[in-house]
Amino acid sequence: MFLPIKSxxxxxxxxxxxxxxGLYNILNEFKVAQYNDYKIPLSKTDIKLLIQxxxxxxxxxxxxxxxxxxxxxxxxxxxxxxxxxxANSAYIGFELTPHFWHQGYMSETLKEFIPAAIHYLNLxxxxxxxxxxxxQSEQLLLKHxxxxxxxxxxxxxxxxxxR
Length: 163
Fold this sequence. Notes:
Elements: E1 5-6, E2 10-14, H1 20-27, H2 30-33, H3 44-60, E3 64-70, E4 76-83, E5 89-96, H4 105-121, E6 125-131, H5 135-143, E7 147-151, E8 155-161
Parallel strand pairs: 5-6
Antiparallel strand pairs: 1-2, 2-3, 3-4, 4-5, 6-8, 7-8
């Protein structure tokens, strides 16, 4: 496994049940939820099942969800992960508590997470499905080398090729 990864301000660790309370708060935050596929409100049981699914998915090689922990106090500030992992491709998803938006935390996360994931899983392509209204995530993906692949009325699909 390529986690944990420690950078200047954050540490990426595999998600675990200890992250439940923090993830509950993040995913139920309206500013985050408006761009996610999860319907809110999520219950504490929903979060427990979500994390358990991530743990099982990691064991089965289907998903990887990293907890983004702030190095100052170990607080969970977001997550970043891969899903729909196939032989040479995967989808990436991420969320960050709004208090840490516009400070470069998710960019720092992707800078560390993407190369490690590509190397560990031998990925050729990473995709991202993004709400057309989520301009911040779209700009972040473009900054990290993703290109738009296709679009519909609701989502844009971005693609990153490993060269």
